[in-house]
Prior knowledge:
By secondary structure, the chain is α/β, with parallel strands linked by helices. Helix content is about 25%, strand content about 30%. The protein contains 10 helices and 18 strands. The chain has an 8-stranded mixed beta sheet. Strands 12-11-10-13-15-14 form a 6-stranded mixed beta sheet, with helices on both faces. Strands 1-2-3-4 form a 4-stranded antiparallel beta sheet, with no helix packed on it. A hairpin with a 2-residue loop joins strand 2 (about 15-25) and strand 3. Helix 1 packs parallel to helix 10. Mean pLDDT is about 85; it is low at about 1-35.
Amino acid sequence: MACSRRFELLTPSFGGWYSIQLSYEHNCAEIILAPYAIISKMSVRTENIKLIVCDIDGTIIPGGRHEISPRLREDFHKAMDRGYKIMINTGRHFTFLQPSLFDDLPMDIVGTINGACVNRRDGSVIEKHPMSEAHMHAITLLCIENNVGLGFKFEDRIVTYANHEKFVEGYVQKGTPYELTVLDGTKTRNHHLKHGCPLGTFLIGADDSIREFVRMVPDLQFAWSFRRGFDVFMNAVTKATSVECALREYGLKWENVIAFGDAGNDTPFLKPAAIAVAMENGKDDVRTVADLIAPPCAEDGVARVLEELKLV
């Protein structure tokens, strides 16, 4: 029997109290998760959703942690039991994925390096998109001249081509297991000769210096990831590229996708998704493209949205 409900409630937010209109009809809802106002630009329809795509850092795993919460783990498994596919879509290199993800999620496909590489669960490559050698040399020179830590993400591993110590301290922190996976290539800068051009780039340095790179290398995007840290990727290859690869593999379309993200490198796959969800802790440019604003990552925002939308 069809059921429709509409009511109003007052909920606290940063600027005071908001009057929110909620309505539920079949699988269509406008929702609010107190104490954070989940801003809805539209009635959220979930009946066509078949693929849940999530960024990692700041979306499903907050800073300082190395695994998803028990609540989110349970919700992901509930979703998979109901037939939904789960895809992780990250800027991280495959070798930098948290080991716990493979224990917690029986995922088939992982988007890595901001869409430039798509891996199967065993690490084998489905699709890859290397940058040009000209771009590689241009970024290297700029980083040397501006004292910026530069790590190139090659298919096999991350290799530094400028200011190794600065990169390691900012990207992986000294003394962590990940430190040993980063190869210091600053003396030879020849890793590309054997392994091909890099698939992605990460920079560690002053924000003002890195923002100047945008003017000098206009064919590349420089997306803020965290303080003094920027992801660099080609305009034509983004996190949407990796989702499109997964859609082909699964025989699905964008209308079947709900996507979650928090940073500038997430906006390309949020925009075409049927339901785009930005985290409350995300940057303003991410929030503006979202249909829903979820509570912060540290407060299980993804899990709360999945539950409120009745996907689990």
